[in-house]
Specification:
This protein is α/β, with parallel strands linked by helices. The protein has 16 helices and 16 strands. It is 37% helix and 22% strand. The longest helix has 17 residues.
């Protein structure tokens, strides 16, 4: 059995205090404890408080524990990435050059590139090849302080490959230190073999894919976008998934305003993703429904688009989470620290809001707030020791990985 871990003399951001997603001013409440301590035991957080408090409780046991003197450095919960496409085959670096030459993302996709290109490479990859490629990406996430990752299928768009992706993620969740939370996204695009027969593909997805996906996934996502899936088709898919126990998510209003945010609120989606073009009516509907906005500033940067209106959404009462959107075409990054920086710079989140969006609210967006996202007694012992003194400094020093050590379930896995 692993030794207990005692991290003391930390600038501790616990994020504790709420049962549901944070919105408005609550997104700035980080549960800060100067000269704080946390005690991990049996993979869980046993106690959180001031160093003086924990010395009184655990001081006699310190010789039996791994004791880390944080020396005033920042300690946070492990970061949570609530939106990725991490399990895929191949690479698409050639498309990056095309976009720099002026070809749009949708033009590349409509010409057989984009999602369709990764679909072909993922269909051709063996399950073991997918496992090995994805393992390397998860290692990189861990090195950047991320201890929980959501992963979507969606690069198969047929039963065989979608289930291959989901099985790969199930294996990785069991084998890799990171918790990998599976989402079914058979509705990522309409495959070429169904061109002109989009409703037939929706029927195939509902009748053939969903029953099998429900055995492996927790969420059901759809790309509601012009020339991909209409709001009506998206609603059919999401409502059908709910019958199998799959919680709805939705890629909404990324390229054009398409009533995606409104649909997210209507179907009771746990989160709506992207939202670069979300309407004011959609933002209001999400706030009323409690739908979490999962915003992806690195994707906007990579596509040279204006970022989502994060400041407006928070002020309107929408709970906001942030994510890398790790994928091979529009955001090939694993750096949540970079994403936190970008959330401040391009979406006008404060440093406190960015940290809340990358921890507690991100956990809420994948229904894991009872396990991760904050440092509270009884939760998983997932934490990051940073080589900076404060959360402000973490967001201020742009484009640098400040991770010093990472603990997952009480085991040091980095540093």
């Amino acid at each position: 059995m692993a030794k207990p871990v005692w991290i003391k003399h930390a600038n501790l951001a616990t994020l504790k205090g709420l049962d549901g997603p944070r919105s408005k001013t609550a997104m700035s409440e980080l549960g800060l404890i100067p000269d704080g301590s946390v005690w991990f035991e049996d993979g869980k957080v046993a106690a959180v408080g001031s160093t003086r408090e924990l010395e009184q409780t655990y001081g006699e046991r310190s010789s039996d524990a791994e004791v880390i003197d944080a020396k005033g450095r920042l300690v946070t919960p492990g970061l949570v990435d609530p939106h990725t496409h991490v399990a895929y085959g191949g690479s698409r670096e050639g498309e990056f050059e095309k976009r720099l030459q002026g070809v749009s993302y949708m033009d590349i996709m409509n010409a057989g590139g984009g999602i369709h290109a990764t679909m072909r490479m993922t269909r051709e990859a063996t399950e073991d090849e997918l496992y090995e490629q994805t393992w390397k990406r998860l290692d990189a996430f861990l090195a950047h302080g991320v201890t929980t990752v959501e992963g979507k299928s969606g690069y198969g768009m047929n039963v065989e490959t979608e289930m291959k992706q989901l099985r790969t993620m199930k294996r990785l969740n069991a084998d890799h230190p990171i918790d990998l939370v599976p989402t079914f996204m058979g509705a990522h695009a309409v495959p070429k073999e169904y061109k002109g027969r989009e409703d037939a593909f929706v029927d195939y997805l509902i009748e053939e894919m969903l029953p099998e996906a429900a055995e492996l996934a927790e969420f059901n996502d759809v790309f509601c976008e012009k020339n991909v899936f209409t709001p009506e088709q998206s609603e059919r898919i999401l409502e059908a998934g709910k019958k199998y126990g799959l919680m709805p998510k939705i890629h909404a209003d990324e390229i054009v305003s398409y009533s995606g945010a409104e649909l997210a609120a209507k179907v009771g989606a746990i989160s709506a993703e992207h939202l670069l073009k979300a309407s004011d009516a959609g933002i209001k509907a999400m706030a009323q429904a409690g739908t979490i906005a999962c915003l992806l500033p690195a994707t906007a940067l990579y596509l040279r688009e204006e970022a989502a209106a994060g400041r407006k959404m928070i002020d309107a009462g929408v709970p906001v989470a942030i994510s890398t959107d790790c994928n091979p075409g529009s955001s090939p990054t694993v750096s949540m620290p970079l994403v936190m920086n970008l959330a401040c710079i391009s979406m006008r989140l404060t440093p406190a809001e960015a940290l809340a969006a990358a921890t507690y609210n991100a956990a809420c967006a994948i229904n894991r707030q009872d396990r991760v996202g904050s440092l509270e007694a009884g939760k998983q012992a997932d934490a990051v020791l940073w080589s900076v003194d404060s959360y402000q400094e973490l967001q201020y020093l742009f484009g640098v990985n400040h991770v010093k050590s990472v603990w997952k379930n009480g085991e040091r896995v980095v540093g």
